Predict the 3D structure of the following.
Amino acid sequence: MTSPISSVDIEAELSYAFLHAVASHAQATCRQAERLSDNRGIDVQLTSWGPFPPGAKKEVDLKIQLKATISTPADLGTHLSYSIKKTSQYDDLRAVGAYAVPRILVVLFLPVEEHNWLDVTEHSLALKKSAYWVSLSGAAAVTTASATVHIPKTNLLTSSALRTIFAELSQGRLPSYTPMGGST
């Protein structure tokens, strides 16, 4: 007997759809990772070809660890909190200079009620609620079973935000983690 798709699987698929839509609007390709990459905390790779500032690279890649949750994040004023259950994934995301292609975490916060996740009308397709991104490069090590990260509310994942990230990467500037209330 075939069982229905779980809510957790639907959340994950909606996070891919959300990222794909935003990346496409930002003029970037969005490729879902193969199983071996997924096992190493890479869910998606984005590629952009600009346009970038003069003298910048012509092509940049960005790898993404993608999460979705119906848990309401703690609102810390300027930041939202999110708990990464596997510290190995956290450690991969915080590694400085370990990878040729930079990595960020993207978290899609969905409404609690499943019937509110998606709204389709004759005039629109709305995937609710919002996604945020954070670079954990340079974040502190943890000794706990999970890691809580603080995502700036200013890091709303939009096509404009992605274009800005790509422009920075094209000039060799990598995003790094700034802890809430401090500097790296």
Observations:
- The mean pLDDT is 90.
